[in-house]
Amino acid sequence: MKDQFPILQRQVNGKPLVYLDNAATTQKPQSVIDAMNNYYCSYNANVHRAVHTLAGEATEAYEECRLLLKLRYNAERVIITSGTTESINLVAHAWARSNLVDGDVIVLTEMEHHSDIVPWQLLAQSIAVELRFVPIKDSGLDLEAYKVALDGAKLVCVTHASNVLGTRNPVEEIIKLAKAEGAKVLLDSAQAVPHEIIDFGELGADFMAFSAHKMCGPTGIGALLVKPETFTEMEVFMGGGDMIEEVTLEGSTFQLDEHRFEAGTPRIAEGIGWAAAIKWLDGIDLGAHHKRILKLAKTTSDFLLKKGMKIHSPLNDGDGAIISFNHPTIHPEDFARLLDAQGIAVRTGHHCAQPLMNILGVSGTIRASFYIYNDEDDVRAFITAVNRVLEVLE
Amino acid sequence: MSWNPALQEIIDEFVDIDDQFEKLEVLIEFADQVNHLPLEEWSDDNLVKGCQSIAHLQVEIREGTIFLMAAADAKLVQGLQGILTVAVQGLSPQNALELTPDFAVEMGLLNTLTPSRSNGFRNMFDTIQTKIKEMI
After folding, report:
1. ipTM for the complex shown
2. Do A333 and B23 touch (CB under 8 A)?
3. Which of A373, A379, A385, B16 has the fewest Cβ atoms within 10 angstroms?
């Protein structure tokens, strides 16, 4: 599979690149690069308005992205955004501001990415909503505490899979419990969509946010899936081109479909690239690949454990193929730079989840995250590189 | 740009090393060049903001030249602090302000000079010059 990814052919610091920072962003297959390049070379035009040929071709190709997303995730409403962060902020502005009042409760978790914490803290500055955080227990969520936190909740925001731990949360049960309480549910699925095909219609969540670049697509584009009845409760947020029906000096009317929430010229090349990524992913057995890379991650984790590292990731069946770890004495930044010197790309730091870092009792971790193009050779190279780091720094 | 002879010697030493891992091993040894800032003197005032690691820098002007004390929890950052010490210590404030951070790229230690959360060297370099400007 690696031969379909041009970047995986390059060397870094004189060594073959071993890319293990997939939870940050994934690499792009040639077909995605070609699709975006072809748009700019052959039919670059703005979409939705003009009657000329290029505009028609561009509109067709761009809107194919939305159609493919609807089919892949069984969703009736797909709002195209700049990514997970904008999707969550859109829920905060377009739904929460007009549907929540002082005293309402939003349930979050200690496992959330900053993108699913900060928008709610900002909301709490203008509406006196109460933010309740479900604690972590054994690398997962404390579901008993969640049940207690649900009392009177109007909205539950939960990460589908943790970007730090890889933990895949039991969102099916979380949604069922939230619905019994009458609460809306927002899933941050940024780390889940790369690894599983999700039936949004069947799940019953109200919102699902994710990004293209975590699933072989381009950066700068993502989606918010919305349940139809919840979609009708959303108020217009950003105004401008593309979202209007008619504008007069006295006032404006707005489109009724998803375009209502997509002001301005959209990310056309990125939408076309994402469509190509979805088609590429449709051609592979995601479930089988996920099992394979989870096994690679477990092999790697077992090695790190034997070398005395603290492993934070549970790596249970269904979890993301993510290993967050710390050495007892070596600083994560030293570790990562010495790995980079050997061609290995991993991530260090707080991973935009500082509250979780505080709970783990560390300022940051080293994170190796696998994706479908990683193989046994990568694990071998990683192990060799780690041994060399330990020889120098231990 | 021409550097002081001691810094030029270090640049030449790093340029001669092809292997990036070996470069970093040598960088770690430069931690010995640091005038260690004792833990009890670590403060928000000398904390270098924006680094992944904890890094402290205290810049003083002693008898008209720069004197640097530093500490960090990451060994490579300590090494960078050692190189910064060689680069600025003993210079007049004016000469230290004329220094550009390009030498780290010339050594092959950095792939970017763009300030960011991952560029501890740039944050430390900028901090030193900011502190000097505040003192003169």
Report:
1. 0.87
2. no
3. B16
